[in-house]
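Thread: "does anyone have the structure for this chain?"

Original post by V.I.:
We have the sequence but no experimental structure in hand. Need at least a predicted one for the grant figures.
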Amino acid sequence: MFGVRAPFKSARPRRGMRGRDTLQVGRHRQSRDRIGGLVFLVVIFMPAFLLVVGALPFWDELRQRDAIRAAMAGVNAGVVGIQLAAA
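Reply from O.Q.:
Generated one for you, tokens below.
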């Protein structure tokens, strides 16, 4: 149901395979999954990292503006509210 058994098909022994060879297919799949996981981890956090690095040279200038201060105060209050709601 819902593809629960599908990931285990590659690690099943096949005819003509004996001993340690039976799990070789599963090991290759695990290494691919780990590499894919690391790639997606980097891809998920890359936009936030680039935004911080891109705004850093202008941060002192942006911090002086009243509109940016008000926006940061609102974001700060929103984050605190979300954290309190999650607790």
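V.I.: this helps a lot. The chain has a mean pLDDT of 79.
O.Q.: and The chain is about 65% helix and 0% strand.
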